[in-house]
Amino acid sequence: MKRTKLRELTFKLIYSETIQKQLEEEEVANFFEENEIQTSEEKAYVQEIWNGIHEKETDILEAIKRNLKEAWSIERIAKIDLAILKLAIYEMVYSKTPYKVVINEAVELAKKYGDDNAKVFVNGILASIVKEENLA
Questions:
Q1: Among candidates 94, 76, 79, 64, which has minimal Cα distance to 20?
Q2: Are 96 and 31 in contact (CB under 8 A)?
Q3: Three-class SS of residue 135?
Q4: What are the residue ranges of helices labelled H in the chain?
Q5: Of 84, 79, 71, which Cα lies nearest the Cα of 125?
Q6: Cα angle vertex 44, ends 82, 8, to 5°?
Q7: Shortest CA distance to 88 belongs to which of 115, 117, 119?
Q8: CB 128 within 8 A of CB 72
Q9: Integer distance in angstroms from the first to the last C-alpha of the chain?
Q10: Cα separation of 92 and 126, whole Å?
Q11: How many CB atoms lie within 10 A of CB 89?
């Protein structure tokens, strides 16, 4: 399975947890099976990001908050956009995936799953974080 597809499935897993508040190990295992995430490499990729987001969630949310416009709060962000941002920020900052790849794929996810403004919002937050973290 290609990395783009795995990234999209990882986004769906993160979004599922955002909606359900918490996923049990059995639910994650079922997600792997239902989405044909079969090889150890595929599972390791999803699991690394999943675990990493949990470990760094406070830092990730703080980065989002620092880069919101004044009138915005994290509670106003659509859950889909928040899931995309968590995934993208983790990959750019902690797994050192090239920021251009991450932003491009995050914007594509926002176009596919978000509302009309999602792609601009996601792109703006991620561009600010690239500058803040000196990733460019």
A1: 79
A2: no
A3: coil
A4: 3-20, 25-34, 40-66, 79-89, 99-113, 118-132
A5: 84
A6: 35
A7: 119
A8: no
A9: 29
A10: 9
A11: 24
Amino acid of residue 71 = A
Q: Which helix (H) or strand (E) element contains residue 35?
A: none
**What is the reported pLDDT for 71?**
83
Tokens at residue 63, please? 């980065």
- Structural domains in the chain, CATH included, are 3-132 (1.10.940.10)
Q: Are 113 and 83 in contact, with CB atoms under 8 Å apart?
A: no
Cα distances (Å, whole numbers) of residue 51 to 43, 45, 116, 128? 12, 10, 30, 24
> Which position has the token pair 């639910």?
27
User: One digit per residue, pLDDT tens: the chain, 136 residues?
Assistant: 898 999 999 999 999 888 887 777 888 888 889 999 989 999 899 999 999 999 999 999 999 999 998 888 899 999 999 999 999 999 999 998 899 999 999 999 999 999 999 999 999 999 999 999 888 7
